[in-house]
Structure to design on (970 residues):
């Protein structure tokens, strides 16, 4: 039965189709919708954040610009104010120095107004004093300082606005004689009176000899001769040069401890000790020139003017700080340094030789000097002033190493500011400029000291000039603090904005994530629901369909009395109703057909019976003697009746077969017995064709469960075919053997054979042998069809093979038209019914 | 012992009359009936030794006739040979259940029918004690 196609044969059922289509029509749009919505939300959010961000950035930039502008403005204002203040301070300082020097002119004239007298000179010496700031102890630098005085507040609230108050400076001051010595020198240059170190000295020398002068460097005697009464001679600063060394360390340029005093940088160093000598002739009452009175001003008092000036909020300091660049210094009329935070920068003399220590040169100039072979002093003395001053130059290492680096502006060719000061003070004026010095932008101010006595009257520059250096950044400090505040504010604000934006972004992203999660959850739930609904719906369809399929299958297998319970009123219900109607119609048709077949076969058999009765009676002699001629004729009739009978039988069988009614009556069947029965039945026919028939029964063939008569019918059919389709005097063998739990019956002949293409088709109903062979042999064309059905009803199979396998049937003469055929009937030993 | 009286029941007049003729020639007393009621009437009036019974009969079918014959004490042992054009298993079964001694299928040759009748004759003559049940005229 090859028509089986149950539900298990389904490839792609309604359920998966429905799930897929439901998912496609609902989940995909849902996903797209969700995706688009979430993307849009995210986009809108991010756009908002972006605009907020750019707004924030914009306002930040505006604030930054505003701040920068404010700072720039304030820096400029501060610069101008500070510059002005420092310039003013410089000018006033110069004026104070000039005033101080003028006072010394008065001192010397006063000294000259009296008759030379040691005790008088001593009295003057003792009375002419001035305080100098002297640190009480170098350790004081590390002390926390004097206890803070109570803050002085505004008192009257009307004065509250911008009340500023600074407590007085509490530096340690020591009174010190103004003069190092006061002398009276006669007209020959011999000292007649000398007051020094607080006493009248008896160490009187002739000062015409330079070697007897301070530092062996004074040459004032020749100048005195030209002085008229009331005229005053003033020397330049004369002092022993104090050496000093600058070294480069990781913290910058530092002053070594062996060096000269250098303010905070080296507070314990040796100080520069110089003098400025005043002299004027002394006349007797009668107008006779008696000699000259001289007074050597302790240069410390001049240096005091500049040594404590700090051009910052600090204003004054015990020790100036050369390292910061914020300090005042002093130059004489020949542009030589006479006061500096670092004493080793002050020009002085070698006390051994009385020669001036040559000024510091640039490395370039120093190298040129070395090449020239001239003594350094001579070179420096003869070098044109201010030649090729450039800031790119560096100071000579050799002079630095020697510790002899006095600043002589005329030759200090790596310091162009010198030239600036020189030019600025040429007309006795003052001013300032900025210069990038030692890695700092420095404001440098200058002011000529308006003191024009003696040699100092030679130029408008007078005594020389004061300069103040100020680190620009220091007086920018306030502005810088403001700037830092603004920058910090902006950066904080920027951080805040960024933080807020980041937070917003995070929250948007979190939202988006949450949305996506919800989307996913909704989609999943929807998918589950849809699948559930699909299953439910498809079951309402497929369940009845499956039932219908089962019922249809049962019907196709002959169980026509089927009725489906109709439980729904939908399409499947209607289908079931239609099916039931069809089933009952089919059952009715089947019943009618059965009835018809039964009736027809009965109606056909009755006349056949009549004919057979009559003919057989005559042939058997019950109607009297029969002539041979009549017998022959009647035998033809009998054969026709026999064929008719078979045809009716076969038709009936076919009808049963088609209505799939199994009507086996199973009993124990002996294989040999059914073969014998079949052979017996065919004896006459075999004999009439002259065939040789052999039987080959294997040993121990067990008993079969089967329908005896039907199995005989099969064998009869096969034998009948062999007999009919084998030329006369053929050979036929009926065999039986046991193989693999089955009984195999074979009917072989050496007949016409069946071509390969027809070997399956011979089992089709009404397949006529004349379709494959020329020989016309009568047959209903139903025998093999019915045999196949019977065998299959027993759970067996029937096959045929042609031509005959010669090896198996060696004694079968084949060849020519005798190709031979063998039919195999395999029957199971134990049929499970 | 030979069977003398045979009841042939067949609605086909040609068949019953043919068998009556041939069997009479062979020495049997043959009664014929064309319907069931007539068959029973004849059976209970003549008590044949053997009944050749068609199934498809007017008025009363062969099964019923057979059942009644087998139900009656007088005819219970009378062999009933059903001879029918109905050759389906179910019909054969039904016939045997109705009490038929043998179920024969039409068409059948006369010599074969005769053999069947004679086989019962031989069984009778084999000496079974059936004397009480057979009536001999």
């Amino acid at each position: 039965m090859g028509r089986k196609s149950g539900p298990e044969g389904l490839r792609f059922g309604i359920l998966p189709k429905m799930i897929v289509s439901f998912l496609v029509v609902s989940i995909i749009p849902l996903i797209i919708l969700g995706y688009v919505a979430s993307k849009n939300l995210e986009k809108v959010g991010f756009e908002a954040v972006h605009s907020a961000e750019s707004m924030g950035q914009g306002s930040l930039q505006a604030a930054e610009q505003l701040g920068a502008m404010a700072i720039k403005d304030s820096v400029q204002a501060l610069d101008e104010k500070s510059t002005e203040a420092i310039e003013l301070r410089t000018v006033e300082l110069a004026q104070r120095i000039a005033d101080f020097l003028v006072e010394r002119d008065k001192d010397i004239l006063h000294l000259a107004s009296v008759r030379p007298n040691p005790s008088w000179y001593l009295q003057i010496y003792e009375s002419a004093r001035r305080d100098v700031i002297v640190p009480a102890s170098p350790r004081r630098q590390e002390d926390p300082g004097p206890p803070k005085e109570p803050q002085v507040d505004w008192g009257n609230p009307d004065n509250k606005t911008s009340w500023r108050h600074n407590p007085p400076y509490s530096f340690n001051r020591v009174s010190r004689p103004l003069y190092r010595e006061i002398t009276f020198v006669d007209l020959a240059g011999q000292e007649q009176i000398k007051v020094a170190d607080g006493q009248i000295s008896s160490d009187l020398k002739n000062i015409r000899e330079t070697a007897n002068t301070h530092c062996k460097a004074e040459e004032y005697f020749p100048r005195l001769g030209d002085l008229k009464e009331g005229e005053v001679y003033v020397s330049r600063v004369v002092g022993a040069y104090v050496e000093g060394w600058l070294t480069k360390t990781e913290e910058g340029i530092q002053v070594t401890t062996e060096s000269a005093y250098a303010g905070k940088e080296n507070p314990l160093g040796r100080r520069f000790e110089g003098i400025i000598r005043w002299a004027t002739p002394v006349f007797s009452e009668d107008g006779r020139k008696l000699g000259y009175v001289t007074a050597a001003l302790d240069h410390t008092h001049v240096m005091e003017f500049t040594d404590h000036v700090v051009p910052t909020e600090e204003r004054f300091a015990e020790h100036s700080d050369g390292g910061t660049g914020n300090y005042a210094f002093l130059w004489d009329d020949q542009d030589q340094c006479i006061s500096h935070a670092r004493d080793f920068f002050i020009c002085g003399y070698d006390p051994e030789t009385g020669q001036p220590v040559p000024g510091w040169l640039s490395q370039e100039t120093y190298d040129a000097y070395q090449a020239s072979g001239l003594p350094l002093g001579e070179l420096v003395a003869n070098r044109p002033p201010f030649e090729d001053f450039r800031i790119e130059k560096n100071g000579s290492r050799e002079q630095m190493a020697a510790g002899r680096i006095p600043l002589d502006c005329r030759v200090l060719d790596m310091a162009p500011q010198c030239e600036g000061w020189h030019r600025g003070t040429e007309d006795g004026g003052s001013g300032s400029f900025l210069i990038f010095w030692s890695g700092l932008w420095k404001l440098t101010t200058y002011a000529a000291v308006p003191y024009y006595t003696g040699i100092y009257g030679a130029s408008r520059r007078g005594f020389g000039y004061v300069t103040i250096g100020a680190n620009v950044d220091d007086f920018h400090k306030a502005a810088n603090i403001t700037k830092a505040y603004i920058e910090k504010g902006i950066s904080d604000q920027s951080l805040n904005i960024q933080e807020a934006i980041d937070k917003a972004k995070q929250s948007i992203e979190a939202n988006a994530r949450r949305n996506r999660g919800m989307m996913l959850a909704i989609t999943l739930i929807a998918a589950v629901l849809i699948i559930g609904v699909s299953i439910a719906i498809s079951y309402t369809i497929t369940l009845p369909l499956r039932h219908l399929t089962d019922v249809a299958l049962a019907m196709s297998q002959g169980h026509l009395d089927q009725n489906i319970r109709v439980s729904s009123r939908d399409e499947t219900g209607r289908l079931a109703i239609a099916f039931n109607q069809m089933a009952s119609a089919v059952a009715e048709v089947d019943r009618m057909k059965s009835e018809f077949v039964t009736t027809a076969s009965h109606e056909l058999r009755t006349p056949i019976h009549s004919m057979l009765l009559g003919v057989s009676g005559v042939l058997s002699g019950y109607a009297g003697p029969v002539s041979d001629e009549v017998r022959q004729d009647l035998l033809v009739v009998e054969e026709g009746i026999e064929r008719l009978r078979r045809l009716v039988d076969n038709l009936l069988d076919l009808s049963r077969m088609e209505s799939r009614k199994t009507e086996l009556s199973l009993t124990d069947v002996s294989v040999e017995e059914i073969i014998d029965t079949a052979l017996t039945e065919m004896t006459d026919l075999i004999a009439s064709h002259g065939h040789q028939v052999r039987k080959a029964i294997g040993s121990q063939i067990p008993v079969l469960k089967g329908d005896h008569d039907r199995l005989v019918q099969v064998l009869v059919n096969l034998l009948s075919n062999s007999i009919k389709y084998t030329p006369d005097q053929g050979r036929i063998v009926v065999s039986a053997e046991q193989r693999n739990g089955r009984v195999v019956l074979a009917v072989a002949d050496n007949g016409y054979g069946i071509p390969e293409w027809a070997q399956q088709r011979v089992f089709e109903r009404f397949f006529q042998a004349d379709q494959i062979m020329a020989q016309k042999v009568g047959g209903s064309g139903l025998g093999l069809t019915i045999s196949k059905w019977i065998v299959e009803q027993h759970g067996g199979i029937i096959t045929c093979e042609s031509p005959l396998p010669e090896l198996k049937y060696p004694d079968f003469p084949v060849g020519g038209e005798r190709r031979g055929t063998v039919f195999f009937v395999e029957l199971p030993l134990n049929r499970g019914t | 012992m030979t069977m003398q009286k045979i009841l042939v029941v067949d609605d086909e007049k040609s068949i019953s009359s043919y068998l009556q003729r041939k069997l009479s020639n062979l020495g049997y007393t043959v009664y014929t009936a064309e319907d069931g009621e007539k068959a029973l009437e004849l059976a209970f009036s003549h008590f044949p030794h053997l009944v050749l019974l068609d199934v498809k009969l007017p008025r009363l079918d062969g099964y019923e006739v057979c059942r009644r014959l087998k139900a009656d004490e007088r005819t219970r042992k009378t062999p009933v040979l059903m001879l029918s054009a109905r050759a389906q298993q179910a019909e054969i079964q039904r016939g045997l259940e109705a009490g038929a001694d043998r179920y024969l299928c039409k068409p059948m040759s006369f010599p074969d029918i005769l053999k069947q009748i004679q086989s019962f004759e031989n069984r009778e003559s084999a000496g079974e004690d059936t004397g009480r049940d057979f009536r001999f005229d």
Summary: Residues 77 and 131 of chain B are 11 Å apart (CA to CA). The helical segments of chain B are 13-25, 36-46, 62-71, 89-97, 110-125. The longest helix of chain B spans residues 110-125.
